[in-house]
Amino acid sequence: ERERERDENLLLCQMEWNAGGLEASLTFVFAVCCCCWSCFDFSFCRVARTHWLWQNQIRMEGEVVLLNTLESMKTFERKKAGLSCIERIDEDVGSGAWVEASSKLNRFVVVCFADLKQYTFYYWVCVPAVKAASPMISKTVEEGAGQDVCTACYEYYKGTKGRTPFWIVEGGGGDTPFRCRGIGEYDRCEKKEEVIVAFVDPSDATGSPGWPLRNFLWFVASSLWGAKTVRVLCLKEEKLGRFSTTSSVLHTVDVPPESGEDKGKTIAAVGWEHNAKGGLGPRSVNLASTLDPKQRASAAMDLNLKLMRWRALPELQVDRLSKSKCLLLGAGTLGCAVSRILQGWGCRKITFVDSGKVAFSNPVRQSLFEFTDCLEGGKPKAQAAADALKKIFPDADSSGVQLTIPMPGHPVKEGSKLHRQTMETVSSLDALVKDHDIVFLLTDTRESRWLPTLLSLAHGKLAVSVALGFDTFLVMRHGCLAQGEKRLGCYFCNDVAAPLNSTKNRTLDQQCTVVRPGLASIASALAVELVSSILQHPMKGAASDEDESILGGVPHSIRGFLDSFEQLKLSSPAFGNCVGCSERVLASYADEKGREAFLTRVFNEPEYLEELTGLTELKRKAQEALEGMEIESDEDDTFGDGGGGGDDDDDFQIL
Predict the structure, then answer these.
(1) C-alpha to C-alpha distances, 11 to 31, 84, 125, 161, 605, nearest whole angstrom
(2) What percent of the chain lies above the pLDDT cut of 70?
(3) What is the DSSP string of 198-246?
(4) Scanning 98, 270, 373, 491, which has its CA 20 to 30 A from the CA of 71?
């Protein structure tokens, strides 16, 4: 049964296990078909029984050696392996086994090492051929072959089921048709000097026969036949497997004299292929894109983005958001929702900043957390959110930073340990903002947005604030210095008071954020889509709120009201006395020598921001104007005859 399968199929015919300590190797001996003698592709090997090889394929036998380490591959005794193949060919010729299967004249060795962790496969292929001291030279080359000889060869080749790469062609003179014989019937040929050896030539070079011809000329034509000159018809296949009349070539080859009696003295083997650099060494192929689940997931996500461009918006530049580095200040309900939508846009680099831990009330509202994150006091929110993104998309470059944002109204005693820690935190947050492209302000208190607002403007980063009420929300992009005099306002530009400690003297229930459950998802989606539209604009964050990108508008702010299901697009310019983005605040932070003193005073005395920006003076003038207000009346204090009153309508004027 095994012999029958070996004849009818391209199946494994021998397996040897050579145990040599750590350098153990597994050797398979295959009977395979090959369409290229220097680059092997086993994908065409059939498992089902077949009686016909595919076109341009030739049966070969050889070994596949699987090694355990890459180092053992580099030290593999390639010369010994090549000579071993030549010796086997010599044995088959001597025993006559080659007569029934001329494919035995060409063998192969494939040495492999598979790095399964990196999905990288190394291989080194050898098709050994005898190296003669004198070259085998084609004396004459006749391009093209007659249709009758090509047809005769095709019918014979087809009759052998494609398993005989060499055969004899005789006749063809006058009215005598061409007749093909097996290579072992040479002695039965009447006119040996007119015999033509035909073989399926894998070579693409017109003037040079393929590699398989070498061993035939050495072992058979010279050693057995005693021929000094051999006519060889190199048959090239065309469509449908037939032999081409225009590409086939007839060579007259001189066989080196030393390939006869002195062959044992000069025998040498060549045939190890060169690597991509042109040197003798193994080649490698990285199949991670097709085998690594992480890379497959990455390719699938990228495909979704490409489909948006192919089918909807050819001008869409998906890389602008997918390659952006996003900093999310807050890993709560908003942070979880924003990060998931960013992943939908292909964004890989996402950094969470949060000081809290996952509570039992979080998982039902915050999509990145689950019940196990709440146990044992709760995992840090920032790191838990980052880990969850990697579970969803393994190629995500997400990280979490547990950090409390320093805030105005939250005092720190100068010179204390807390003061030093606070200044270090400011430096860390400054570095985070500097290293990212987009900053999302997703915290739940007003004062926690002050320092990120200042840092984003100082480093020229696109900042987007998302704030929630019970049934209302605000999505706002902050203006940037590149907008010049038409700079849009920041989160604090509509205020005339410095941010204070909003959690002071609040009960526990008052400190909890209470919003309608669907509000965060709506606001988060609008925030990310606003950013995606801004990035498609040529000016990106410096775009005017009146402009549009290929994705639509780029408004300054969006205010939503869930009770009436309405949204408003509003715009406001930067306020010259803003406590978050005015020139005086920026200049105070830019002064490295006075920065620490400036921040310390802001944290301890939030009213200092009003003094610095001129809000205190502005309020004083407004109060003076209010106190000096006069009311004029046109009422007539005299009564007319009959006791009637004057005009009851009073006209007031504010002076």
Answers:
(1) 6, 22, 20, 16, 84
(2) 81
(3) EEE-----SSS--TTHHHHIIIIIITTT--SEEEEEEE-B-GGGPBPTT
(4) 270
What is the layout of strands, in order, in the sheet containing 472-477? 397-402, 349-354, 325-329, 438-441, 462-468, 472-477, 557-561, 566-570
Residue the block writes with tokens 């900053």:
439
Side chain identity, residue 523: A
Tokens read off for 83: 């000579």
* Residue 369 neighbours by CB under 8 Å, 6+ apart: 336, 358, 362, 363, 381, 384, 385, 388
CB-count burial class (<10 Å; 0-12, 13-18, 19+) for 653: exposed
Q: 243 and 235 in contact (C-beta within 8 Å)?
A: yes
Question: Collapsing DSSP states into helix, strand and coil, what is residue 286?
Answer: strand
Residue type, 92: D
347 counts as catalytic: no
By CB atoms closer than 10 A (0-12, 13-18, 19+), residue 648 is: exposed
User: Which listed residue (490, 512, 578, 581) is catalytic?
Assistant: 512
Q: What would the pLDDT profile of 81-114 be if each residue is shown by its tens digit?
A: 888 888 888 888 778 777 777 778 878 889 999 9
**Digit-coded pLDDT (tens) for 485-532:** 999 999 999 888 878 777 665 554 455 678 999 999 999 999 999 999
CA distances, 233 to each of 137, 169, 171, 236, 291 (Å): 15, 9, 14, 9, 44
Identity of residue 406: P
Going by their DSSP bridges, the two strands 166-171 and 196-200 should be labelled as: antiparallel
CB-based contacts of 481, cutoff 8 Å, min separation 6: 457, 460, 487
Residue 315 — φ and ψ, nearest 5°? -85, -5
Report the DSSP pairing between strands 438-441 and 397-402.
unpaired
pTM (global) more than 0.70? no
